[in-house]
Design brief:
Elements (H helix, E strand, L loop, with lengths): L14 H19 L6 H8 L3 H8 L2 H20 L9 H18 L1 H12 L3 H5 L7 H16 L9 H17 L1 H8 L6 H19 L23 E2 L2 E2 L8
Helix pairs in contact: 1-2, 1-4, 1-6, 3-4, 4-6, 5-9, 5-11, 9-11
Length: 248
Amino acid sequence: MPTRPATIARRPRNPARTRGRLLAAGIELFAKHGFHGVAVDTIVAKAGCNKRMLYHYFGDKEGLYAAVLQAVYTRMEQVEMKPLPAAATTADVVREMMARHFDFLAGDPEFVNLLMWENLNQGRILARHPDLLTKTPVIERLREGLDAAKGRGEIGDVGDIRHQLILMMGMCFIYFANRHTLHQAIGLDLDQPRVQAEGLAMAQRMFLAYLGLDDEGNGPAKGRKAISRTPLAGRSPRGPTTRGRRRG
């Protein structure tokens, strides 16, 4: 009696695992080479699947790239929006927000690289996917804290809250975005934990000083004068004035 050939058990499909492998491969490769420096063949080879799976789950390479950006931005938002201590002072809130941002950047170099690549690309892909990135939750948290401090007489008018967020993030981001060139230019190894700790502490003190607060959070209520931030003469809040400009 003839025997039947043995059947090979087919591994059950796991869509979530396949999508996750593609996403992980995209994060790694786009962080290293940017959107234009990675081919679909390279991505699927890294993920261990075929092109059909990439097109099925993400539509095309840009769809995967958009999902990559959303994934790393979500990682940051989860850190930034953790609850703050209920009894936190204004200085505590500022220091904690900056420390969270700084520590996230220190621990997630892929995010730093992806952000720099997208800026080199002039944000073109983000512009085509406007719902991918928003700092509104962080802006509202900062606004709430500074408005409360102003109401208590601790600080004066700080102006456009978006500029305050840029200052806070910028003083942190440069330690990671420019770490290699600054190491060569000024001889300071920004990868060293001690140097990072010093940089974060200095950035925190500088921003508190801008608000008119000392390291302990003391402001005008302790005899210091609140600082009112107003646009420079001849400039509007939106940019340079056009008054007196020659027209060619």
